[in-house]
Amino acid sequence: MTISVLIADDQAMVRAGFAALLDAHEGIRVVGQAANGADAVTLAARLDPDVILMDVRMPEVDGIEATRRILGPGYPAAHVPRILMLTTFDIDDYVYDALEAGASGFLLKDALPEELVHAVRVVAGGDALLAPSVTRRMIEQFAGRRPRTPRAAAALADLTEREREVLVLIGGGRSNSEIAGDLFIAEQTVKTHVGKVLAKLGLRDRVHAVILAYDTGLVEPAS
Fold first, then answer.
1. What is the CATH classification number for the domain harbouring 171?
2. What distance in Å separates the CA atoms of residue 111 and residue 175, rounded to the nearest whole number?
3. Whole-number Å distance between alpha carbons of 104 and 123
4. Is residue 141 included in any domain, yes or no?
5. What is the largest distance, in Å, between two alpha-carbon atoms of the chain?
6. DSSP E strands: which ranges in 25-172?
7. In the Cβ-directed half-sphere of 10, how many Cα atoms lie within 13 Å?
């Protein structure tokens, strides 16, 4: 199956570079390019891409607002795309807003080519991805800004004991293979548990599972 990608960035050379890089890899096809968030919203509805590479800072409509519009209710697309945010800075307040808007991943613009290709494949596969340099710090800071709510804690009541254990490990940044080793179960079983956790809690992906783990106090920010 070919992954269709829309690139949204206000710098033409960046768009061209990303497009050339991605098109050179089997199973990935760039279907469109947008110079700002408004164009990204329009093209996303028309081209129905699997993944959108979305620059955070763009003129007219920035990447955060474009993400809100694309992932909001009633958007006229055949399926909901996965949005991978591109940012120049490893600490960027916009990143927190993008999490709330529903973005599935973050990548620094200076990432290696193979990291970009890997990120597109991971996000297209329904998982979430964060640049290693910002993952833990970003989520801890994001969670620290939000008050814990009874509603968030109540959502955990539907989880089994094993699913709660898996959520704690997800919140700790553990991969499926690492969780399998920690719990002495098969990796496929972990994938099943992760899927059930996301479904029961109404979450889009692992990024938002991590946030909920912090929100509910299952995982505490590092001191």
1. 1.10.10.10
2. 21
3. 7
4. no
5. 51
6. 28-34, 51-55, 82-87, 105-108, 129-130
7. 13
Give the per-residue pLDDT at 11: 93
List strand residue ranges (DSSP E) for the chain, in order: 3-8, 28-34, 51-55, 82-87, 105-108, 129-130
The SS3 call for residue 70 is helix
Length of the chain: 223
Whole-Å CA distances, 162 to 140, 159, 192, 195:
24, 8, 11, 13
Token representation of residue 57: 């800072």
Domain that holds residue 127: 3-133
Tell me the pLDDT of the chain (223 aa) as tens digits: 899 999 999 999 999 999 999 999 999 999 999 999 999 999 999 999 999 999 988 988 999 999 999 988 777 666 789 999 888 765 556 666 777 788 887 888 888 888 899 889 988 877 666 555 455 566 666 656 655 555 566 778 889 999 999 999 888 777 788 889 999 999 899 999 999 998 998 887 777 787 788 778 887 765 4
CATH number of the domain to which 76 belongs: 3.40.50.2300
Buried-exposed string 48-58: b where 16+ CB fall within 10 A, e elsewhere: bbbbbbbbbbb
When divided into structural domains, the chain yields a total of 2
Q: What is the share, in percent, of the chain residues with pLDDT greater than 90?
A: 42
Q: Please say which residue of 86, 108, 133 terminates a domain.
A: 133
Question: How many Cβ atoms sit within 10 Å of the Cβ of residue 123?
Answer: 26
Classified as helix, coil or strand, 106 is: strand
